[in-house]
Design a protein that fits this description.
Layout: E1 14-23, E2 28-38, E3 43-47, H1 54-61, E4 69-74, E5 77-78, H2 84-91, E6 94-97, H3 111-123, H4 127-140, H5 146-150, H6 159-171, E7 177-181, H7 189-206, E8 209-214, H8 217-223, E9 226-231, E10 234-240, H9 241-246, H10 251-258
Parallel strand pairs: 3-8, 3-9, 6-7, 7-8
Antiparallel strand pairs: 1-2, 1-4, 4-5, 9-10
Helix pairs in contact: 3-4, 4-6, 6-7
């Protein structure tokens, strides 16, 4: 897979090798013989409609579920074999940004508490150092003044602000890979561009690897280098993002493009 100039050479790649996942009740493969690699600093888009297997693959990659067949490696770590402490350490290096910013945050906890926990639990920072990091994280994701936002409860934030807090929490442990599962699908159109710009900026500045999961090909164009199109658990098309979107080869990819209004407007979507 392609890489970005802001690569951290020590960051291990993610290798998904012939992975399948079959649920007994369905007796159908939710993920069927999928292979791909995310190189250090690369941003890969996993695109498909609801039910295509995208979120199942995300759970396999983050170790929440184990594959029926195949293997997933993060550097030297066999993800499907990790247990307890090793899995917890892995989660400090691979973080998830969830689809629903409303359900991802505990409504009873302030933003500061939410961001302090990973700083204390994974980085073992003192209370003062954790607070300083929380403020820095909030500034990083565009929530300023940080002290003001740190004191707020989730219900006092807009949807876009909540998702920025979720992204800040994912950054708290200084991860090497972020798995973003439909991170803008529940936001108003007016808020989506800002969150996409944030993800693109964080990747460029920090050399993060990114797996961006979406049904929206237009947003994938903004933040990814390469796209895999998933249909019924199988990869039906893959290639550089611009090439796949401008010259789709599979009928399913064409259908996804047809569902997006004017995907190639005159203005470059990267300027949104």
């Amino acid at each position: 897979m392609s890489t970005d100039p802001a690569v951290h050479s020590g960051t291990p790649p993610l290798v998904v090798d012939s992975v399948s996942k079959v649920y007994r009740r369905a007796a159908v493969a939710a993920v069927d013989d999928v292979s791909f690699t995310i190189a250090p600093g690369a941003a890969v888009g996993l695109v498909g409609a609801s039910g295509s297997g995208k979120s199942t693959l995300a759970r396999l990659i983050t170790g929440s579920e184990r594959p029926t067949a195949g293997s997933i490696r993060f550097g030297d770590l066999p993800v499907e074999r990790l247990r307890s402490g090793a899995l917890r350490a892995f989660h400090s290096r691979v973080q998830m940004v969830f689809q629903d910013p409303y359900g991802a945050l505990n409504p009873l906890h302030t933003v500061e508490y939410t961001l302090t926990r990973p700083c204390r639990n994974f980085l073992h920072l003192t209370a003062a150092a954790a607070q300083a990091r929380v403020y820095d994280l909030l500034e990083t994701v565009g929530l300023s003044p940080a002290a003001q936002y740190a004191a707020k409860l989730p219900h006092q934030l807009s949807g876009g602000q909540r998702q920025r807090v979720v992204i800040a929490r994912a950054l708290a442990c200084d991860p090497e890979l972020i798995v973003a599962d439909e991170p803008v699908s529940m936001l108003d159109v007016s808020l989506r561009a800002g969150v996409l710009r944030l993800l693109a900026r964080l990747r460029a500045e920090r050399g993060l690897s990114l797996l961006y999961i979406t049904h929206d090909l237009l947003s994938a164009r903004v933040v990814t280098d390469e796209i895999l199109v998933l249909n019924n658990g199988k990869v039906v098309e893959r290639g550089p993002t611009k090439q796949v979107l401008q010259h789709p080869q599979d009928r399913y990819t064409v259908q996804l493009l047809d569902a997006v209004a004017t995907p190639f407007a005159a203005a470059d979507t990267r300027t949104l």
